[in-house]
Design goal:
90 residues; alpha+beta; 1 helix; 29% strand; globular
């Protein structure tokens, strides 16, 4: 019998909600993510490997950080205290 796996956070919903809330033009494809439960931090990569050369803080609390490449394109996003940024359930 197959085991059901549940993600600790709704990655797709959280990324979509964050993009909408802050009017971000994010890439449409997530290629990799990692959620650190102890730190409650979600790391999202839109490219792999993502080569950030700069960063941009999006929110006033400094909890949402975009990784930018040499062409100023978003290649990654970090959400600190991810569980407090819950995406709405449909």
């Amino acid at each position: 019998m197959a085991k059901t796996v549940v993600l600790a956070v709704d990655v797709e919903g959280l990324v979509s909600e964050t993009a909408e809330k802050y009017s971000l033009d994010l890439p449409s494809k997530i290629v990799m993510f990692h959620y650190d439960e102890e730190a409650d931090t979600l790391y999202v990569h839109f490219e792999y490997p993502s080569k950030s050369v700069d960063s941009k803080i999006v929110d006033k609390h400094g909890e949402i950080i975009l990784g930018l490449d040499q062409d100023d394109r978003v290649v990654s996003m970090t959400i600190i205290n991810a569980s407090t940024h819950k995406a709405p359930k449909n």
